[in-house]
Amino acid sequence: MIVTTGFLTKIRTFLKQIDYPYGDRYYPDIIDRLVTELLPNGSDIEMIADLLSGYRYVKNREKKILKVYNTPKYLSRLLSIEPSSFSPTFTKYTKNYDQVVVTNALSGAFRILKTFQVYSTQDDRVTSINKDKAYFTQDFNSYKLKTFVRQVELYRYDEKIMKFSLDYFMKKYRYKPIEMTNNYSLEQDGSVFKAYTINLEQEKILIGTFEFKVLKTTYVHGLSLIKIMDEQYHDMLVMLGLGMLYSIMYSENSRRSSN
Model confidence at 115, in pLDDT bands (50, 70, 90)? Predict the structure, then answer.
């Protein structure tokens, strides 16, 4: 087993980032729990992407990491290394609205566009949303997504709310609204997307915002950061954020396949 200083530094930095409490023992289940709690608590999308990248790195090398901890000479080298200072640490999210991360970063190569993980500050909730034939659904969620290549339809039960596509090309997001009910509005402000409800007086009320990040991985992975201002729209906004992310990931996958 080849153990480089670079490898050990990455492990030490990641463990510091998640505030791992044990020095000479490595517990994968505790790593999973800490990341699960921290992921939706990032102050911005770059911080969350950095944590996801570190988590993917250690998950793909757990056997090697366990050997390091079980080999005194390697463990001694690990504990003597100073973590990189550029990696920020996380603190508990304290805003007065929920924050949700939707990602396919932990899905395998054959599930990257079929399984998405959802991490929420709401009771530290963690779920998955899976695609069954044409639809993404959740057991407790009255909303569902239907996909047509890169286009996505959002439904509440059998009522269509909106149809759209979203692409990321040349460092710009290209949002294309196709259909939308009169009750909602989705607007782009640079790299941030804002969802509104429209009341009887035609006033717009902000209910949530979305940001996206395409991760630098072998397969097509990304994440959506959703800030939910109105709790009654929680499930809808999660599914909408997933749909927007799916459209980006599908477009990116098609682009990579054609190169």
Answer: very high
Q: Are 246 and 136 spatial neighbours (Cβ–Cβ below 8 Å)?
A: yes
Mean pLDDT to the nearest integer, 102-130: 86
Q: Kindly calculate the radius of gyration of the chain based on its CA atoms and give it in whole angstroms.
A: 20
What is the rounded distance in angstroms from the CA atom of residue 187 to the CA atom of residue 177? 9
Beta bridge partners of 188: 193
pLDDT one-digit tens code per residue, 39-95 = 998 888 999 999 999 999 999 999 999 999 999 999 999 999 987 765 556 665 556
185-206 pLDDT, tens per residue? 999 999 999 999 998 888 999 9
